[in-house]
Amino acid sequence: RAPTTTAAPTTTTLPPTPPCATGGLSITIGDSEGAAGSVYTEVYVANTGTAKCVLDGPGVMRFTVGGTPVGAQLTASSTADLELAPGGVATALWRMSAAGLFDCTPSAATQIELVFGTAIVDGPAYDPVCETPPQEQGTLQGFTAGLSDLVPPGE
User: Fold this and answer.
1) 94 vs 109: CA distance, rounded Å
2) Is this structure's pTM higher than 0.85?
3) CA dist., res. 124 & res. 58, Å (int)
4) pLDDT tens, per residue, the chain with 155 residues
5) How far is CA 135 from the centre of its chain?
6) For residues 26-57, b (16+ Cβ closer than 10 Å) or e, as one string?
């Protein structure tokens, strides 16, 4: 009987998915709901590019006036990278605190920015935040793939 040979399995190594670029992302802020003394809003990040990409890191939300960061920034609670297909969306729940609730000097109206690695994405205009001293502007849950009806804690 002739010896049998087995071919070695072949593997294909795919290149890693690149990080999302600044020009390939957009931000949308959802409707707000009040609960237990806080206001909750969904934050949507969409891949507007033509190729899949990775949201690099947890995501940091900051507030700017004229391009200069003001107040405290928020870092999303999850540190996992998240892959988005073209047209794909990631969602996080933002619990926000109004500047009027604190003893602080409020900023002028701000703009929201999200930062994922080196990608900085300009978002919509937003209300004033505590400029001095910087106060916590709330919390930001980790981003998850897809649209969702996120529920505030305790509901």
Assistant:
1) 18
2) no
3) 20
4) 666 666 666 666 767 899 999 899 999 988 888 766 678 888 999 999 999 999 988 889 988 888 888 888 888 888 778 899 999 999 999 887 655 566 777 777 788 899 998 899 998 888 777 777 666 678 888 888 887 655 444 44
5) 20
6) ebeebeeeeeeebebbbbbbbbebeeebbbbb
